[in-house]
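REQUEST FORM: STRUCTURE PREDICTION
Request ID: SP-0412
Submitted by: Lab K.M.
Chain count: 1
Length (residues): 202
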Amino acid sequence: MSYSDFTIEEVKLRFSLRLEEDRDLYATIAPVEISPLLRETLAENVPLALAISTEKARSEFIIAPVLLEARRQANHQASLFSGIEFTVDAELGLKGVCDFLLSRSSEQLTIEAPVVAVVEAKNENMKAGIGQCLAEMVAARLFNERKGRDEQAVYGVVTTGNNWKFLQLLGNAAQVDLVEYHIKETGRIIGIIKAMLLGQTA
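STATUS: Completed
RESULT:
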């Protein structure tokens, strides 16, 4: 079993998680002003990625530029990993390749303190992506604990490139944001990810 095999039910049962999906988790986080570079990039890339309509196109042309902007906005106090092997506990099924991981560390050669797992929803199925994302978040928390890192929350993002859904893991509460954001709300999306990276979501 690997991250992509987890359904919401499976991850709930295996890791004794309680699903909460009735809150607007990031209502108080203000949008940020995005750079002219990203604005121009998305103006060209979004229609192209949606026309090509493949996961690779959405990943390269929409998701990666948004995450890079979030990293810049966090003053590069975060590292970004793409398509990286992240095996934490193979016996628990916490293994496999992550689409993207954001770590609360400026070190780029090794993963230090993963706090945001980003999953591209396969076949644009957001619900299926949530199960995978929660499994990666559990793995990130276990990884941090084993390294003696006290991260109060681990965060997750499930996205099609066009739509963005945010999650957070606090204790055994797996919280799925009530709100789903559209890529047109880029400043809000990046503001939320920036807050996650800087520990400013409360």
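NOTES: The chain has one domain: 3-198.
Reviewed by: T.R.
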